[in-house]
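#help-structures
NK: newbie question, is this the right format to request a structure? protein is Probable oxidoreductase (Short-chain dehydrogenase family)
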Amino acid sequence: MSKTWLITGTSTGLGRLLTERLLERGDRVVATLRQSGVLDELLQRHGDRLHALTLDVTDTKAIRTVMQEAFERMGRIDVVVSNAGYGLFGAGEEVSDAQIERQIATNLTGSIQLIRAALPHLREQGGGRIVQVSSEGGQIAYPNFSLYHATKWGIEGFVESVAKEVAPFGIDCLIIEPGPTGTNFAAGLDHAHPLACYEDTPAGEVRRAVASGDFAIKGDAAKTVDAIIVAADAETPPFRLALGSTAYTSIRQALSERLRLLEEQKTVALAADLDG
């Protein structure tokens, strides 16, 4: 049976490919993007199964308006995909105040407000599914992506809590964690002004690797999107889904190290309880 999806950030990358795949299999899609006209070719090909809406997710009022319009037009939306986002590249000291505000407003606050806007409609229709596109960067951290990681760790915490809150309403959540994937993510990076003092630090090493193209990208965008669709279609999806060998390896290593450190601290942790 066909489904109806709402997907943000559909002009390029995983969002665009996900929209194309779903339309090809006969589903209906409400696709949001910042610039109108980008999906005109798809609109001509798929007719009323695609509804394109202009949306900047940093505009909370617009999010609520678009969500209302989408549910009114489609009647029911089965899956809401929070995908819009980008990367801010620079050491924590290097990025500007304006860059920080925009990164958080887009990746974190925008995703939070999108989910919040969807919940009343999902409750009213008796359930649905929220798919949050995060990153391996929601559980690990590379130098020079500190603000990006802050938003991804933040949205994962939000979704994990909300999932417990809305489960009684028949709403479930899925967090997608791709590793470096063959999209235009690198081309869309917002670069901070580099400081010379970071040249010979891990931040400088990552900067040079990205600039030279030596930053390994192993993830296949088409396979990643196919895996997202399979998981989102599942009767009981995994709560988190790491995609790509880099994501699996890096997340596994990070979790193992955190667990090792936690076990080492067990005696100190237990000793901090009230006596008796």
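mod (FA): yep, format's fine, and the tokens are attached above. The chain is about 50% helix and 15% strand.
NK: thank you!
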